[in-house]
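Hi V.,

Quick status before I head out on leave. The structure for the redesign project is tokenized and pasted below; the design run finished overnight.
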């Protein structure tokens, strides 16, 4: 509001030399006030405009839109359902609308919600809002975010929806104890002995980027079992909502050990590289967040990730491509149920050599997701296909089709077991019961 008043003040000063009476000046000011969107008002002062723009960038880094903008909904008006261990909850309206959004939040209220998970009226937020990660965000960035949400976002009147959690589980006070146990309230502090890029990357990955909220395994109380690289489970891969978020440590098969710094930057910028493509819940991270990172921040993120020592490996030797056995099965698919399905439904895109046409069509040979212990992502992507990856406004031309209505559970288990054994991938077979389970849970979620 302060910025808007300043804007009006500037308009008034500009109008003063005219002959207008005080009364008409006041109405002129009022008209200017009403006609201006908050963003325009903020634009009147270059300093504030810079702050709002910086906040807009940080909101992309934090991927606030992924949760606070529902499909086909107005930006940041909330309403997206999220599944938690207690039941379904809905994201809230964080537009500056005074009645239904956060228009009444002071800067201090906003920063407390962001970093400590407490709403203005004092109620605790469920940690589905990733405040345990956002706790690391420094004051300057938190203030820029506030400036953006107050002056760069259009207010939307849309009431919040109550969580579908029944009494007594819906009581929020136990979250205070959860916070005592699991919330580290200190903002990120640079680690001595590490260079500026490493520290910037650590700050972004652990903090606003909240990569660990999907990629770090969770403990019994749904807490992330490590919040930085001091814990070996940090970013070592985790199952959430039917997708296995890959191992991002230096592990050489299922992790990023075989990826160069450039491979990693290409993936985060474009959603695909010579090893793999983005799919599942990573698609929206690329669409809304990482493709917008500045070159410097992208480099920082990959410097930090590439420094993580290998974790959660199986002890298998580093992957080496070998197509011989697979070539034989594909030449005589009669004896191999998986090879038959692959030949009929997958080969024309992913290739007999398993290389696909990377980065357009994902390779399956040596792909870290194919080599991961947990096959959930592979089953899910084969059943349900992929949502559109949109880079620079252009949707990907050949998305992975959904096979849920084309192949039965046994065929999917067969083809994925074939893919996991193929080209020397050496990953364990997929059981038909694993496919049935994911088919049921992903259908229920739709
Ligand atoms: C992974 C999903 C997710 C992301 C990402 C996320 N939020 Fe939230 N946020 C939520 C949920 C869910 C709630 C409501 C929780 C509840 O009702 O207990 C919430 C609540 C809030 C609130 C409290 C407002 C209220 O009335 O409930 C604020 C403020 C907020 N988020 C700001 C942000 C900002 C700023 C960002 C980006 C930096 C962000 N959120 C990113 C899920 C998310
Ligand atoms: C909403 C959940 C979610 C969040 C948040 C998330 N990821 Fe992911 N990520 C996934 C899933 C699921 C996959 C596996 C599918 C794929 O490869 O795209 C994945 C895959 C990846 C991969 C590819 C790894 C491989 O072996 O193919 C990289 C790299 C990655 N994520 C980096 C990041 C970074 C960096 C962040 C934080 C800025 C992040 N992710 C945040 C869910 C998430
Ligand atoms: C029309 C071409 C096409 C066909 C047919 C196809 N896929 Fe895909 N597949 C893709 C594309 C493209 C991706 C990359 C994700 C994306 O951008 O949608 C992909 C991704 C995948 C992935 C995830 C790997 C990664 O890193 O992205 C797996 C696993 C997979 N496909 C398995 C299969 C199986 C099994 C079949 C046959 C039952 C099959 N695909 C048929 C195009 C295809």
């Amino acid at each position: 509001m302060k910025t808007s008043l300043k804007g009006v003040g500037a308009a008034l000063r500009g109008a003063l030399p005219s002959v207008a009476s005080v009364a008409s000046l006041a109405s002129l000011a009022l008209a200017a006030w009403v006609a201006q969107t908050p963003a325009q008002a903020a634009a009147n002062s270059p300093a504030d405009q810079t702050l709002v723009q910086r906040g807009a960038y940080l909101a992309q880094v934090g991927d606030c839109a992924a949760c606070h903008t529902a499909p086909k909904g107005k930006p940041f008006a909330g309403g997206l359902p999220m599944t938690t261990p207690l039941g379904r909850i809905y994201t809230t309206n964080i537009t500056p609308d005074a009645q239904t959004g956060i228009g009444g939040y002071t800067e201090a209220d906003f920063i407390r919600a962001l970093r400590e998970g407490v709403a203005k009226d004092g109620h605790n937020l469920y940690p589905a809002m990733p405040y345990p990660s956002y706790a690391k965000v420094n004051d300057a960035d938190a203030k820029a975010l506030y400036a953006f949400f107050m002056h760069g976002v259009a207010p939307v009147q849309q009431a919040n929806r109550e969580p579908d959690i029944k009494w007594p589980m819906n009581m929020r006070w136990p979250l205070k104890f959860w916070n005592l146990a699991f919330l580290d309230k200190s903002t990120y502090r640079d680690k001595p002995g590490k260079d500026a890029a490493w520290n910037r990357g650590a700050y972004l990955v652990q903090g606003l980027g909240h990569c660990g909220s999907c990629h770090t395994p969770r403990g019994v109380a749904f807490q992330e079992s490590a919040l930085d690289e001091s814990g070996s489970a940090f970013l070592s891969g985790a199952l959430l909502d039917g997708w296995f978020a890959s191992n991002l440590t230096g592990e050489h098969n299922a992790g990023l050990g075989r990826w160069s710094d450039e491979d990693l930057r290409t993936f985060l910028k474009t959603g695909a590289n010579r090893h793999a493509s983005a799919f599942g819940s990573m698609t929206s991270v690329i669409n809304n967040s990482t493709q917008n990172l500045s070159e410097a921040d992208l480099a920082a993120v990959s410097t930090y990730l590439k420094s993580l020592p290998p974790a959660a490996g199986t002890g298998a030797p580093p992957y080496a491509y070998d197509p011989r056995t697979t070539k034989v099965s594909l030449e005589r698919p009669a004896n191999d149920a998986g090879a038959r399905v692959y030949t009929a439904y997958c080969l024309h895109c992913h290739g007999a050599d398993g290389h696909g046409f990377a980065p357009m069509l994902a390779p399956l040979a040596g792909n870290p997701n194919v080599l991961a212990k947990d096959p959930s992502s592979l089953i899910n992507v084969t059943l349900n296909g992929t949502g559109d990856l949109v880079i620079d406004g252009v949707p990907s031309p050949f998305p992975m089709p959904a096979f849920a209505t084309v192949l039965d559970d046994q065929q999917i288990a067969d083809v994925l077991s074939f893919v996991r054994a193929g080209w020397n991938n050496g990953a364990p077979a997929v059981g038909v019961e694993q496919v049935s389970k994911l088919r049921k849970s992903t259908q229920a979620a739709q």
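Above is the designed sequence. The first helix runs from residue 2 to 15.

G. will cover questions while I'm gone.

Best,
W.
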